[in-house]
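Researcher: Here's a chain I'd like modeled. Treat it as a single chain, no partners, no ligands.
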Amino acid sequence: MVEIFKQNLAIEPDVQNFVQLVLSAVAEMGGNSFAASLALLDAARRLRGAGAGTGYPLPVALVLEDLDVVIRCDTGQEITLMQLREAPALPHVERISQRLQKSTEVADPALLLQRNQEMMRYLDETRQRTERELAELQASLHARQQELHETMKQAETDPLTGLFNRRAFDVRLDTAFRRAMRQRDEPLSLLLFDLDYFKEINDQYGHQYGDAYLNKMAQAMLGVIRQDVDAAFRFGGDEFAMLVAADVSTACDKAVRVLDAMTGKVSIGIASINRITPDSMDLESFIRQADDALYQAKRSGRGRVVCSAEKRGDCKGECLNKAAKDSKAAAA
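Model: Modeled as a single isolated chain. Structure tokens:
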């Protein structure tokens, strides 16, 4: 294979000049100029389709492969123009190559100016097109992210109250527990809630009233937590939970506020983790402590807050019992 000459076809005059040089090369190698002219009409069309003459510096080369005269693009495209009857002598081909390559290097100021202008236009259009495509891609990505966020939100949200559901509770509790056990200077409290006599309320006043009562509970919980720090959950039915990034005393205060908002008709159990929590504590034990405290609150008469036995000394239970009694008295 011998490369006869190579040229960048940035503007239309480059394409026309290339065609003339190819015809000259074919004639000097003993080829049929008329047949080459017909083949070049189709070749020029295909080259323009590949970007020649648009401002893009499309590199093309005329090569001789055995007897075949071929146009080869850097894009990988190959166009066979014709086949010579006999192979020209190599020294003769090299002289043709030197002359034609030299002719492509002649600097015509007008052509250089036009070529530069066309290439600048092409680069500017390419930049604008790329910016548009990037903006469209970013907008599409943002839309997909929003869709994914909404899908994930729906998957972990209780449809009635808007609180997180049991699925979200399991995931967030596991993450929060691991973090609290790893970083002991950041306490964590788990509060479990059970609406007292909810079935009777629902049966007596109807499901619509019952749904409103559940939403009232949800709003009471949301009113005492910090957005993006703490979290409130509804498991289903009349069971609720909160994760509070605070010690047991702060958790108790929040529990009492929820109790007051629900006129003393909620049983609440609390378990907490702090820097003196044993390393042997596991997630199941943590949940069980809160659940046992909730059971104790219900067994002791309901409408009250009980801390787990491990934290009862920090829970100020007498004050909480008084708060529960005051709430009941106010309701009466």
